Amino acid sequence: MAYMKPEEIVENMLQAGAKKACLPVKQLLIRGFLAGAFFGYATTLAILAATQTGWVLIPI
Length: 60
Fold this sequence. Notes:
By secondary structure, the protein is mainly α. It contains two helices and no strands.
């Protein structure tokens, strides 16, 4: 794995953000719905695994 300087990482992040900011509304909505679906799936999987194993997700 090649080493990258923090400045290069920040520059890449800024470029990616600028690229996403120029997306049309349709693409933003599609990406938002897919992100929500993935988060919901991951949460459901985590809760299912926690209930079947008896592990506590959030220790209180």
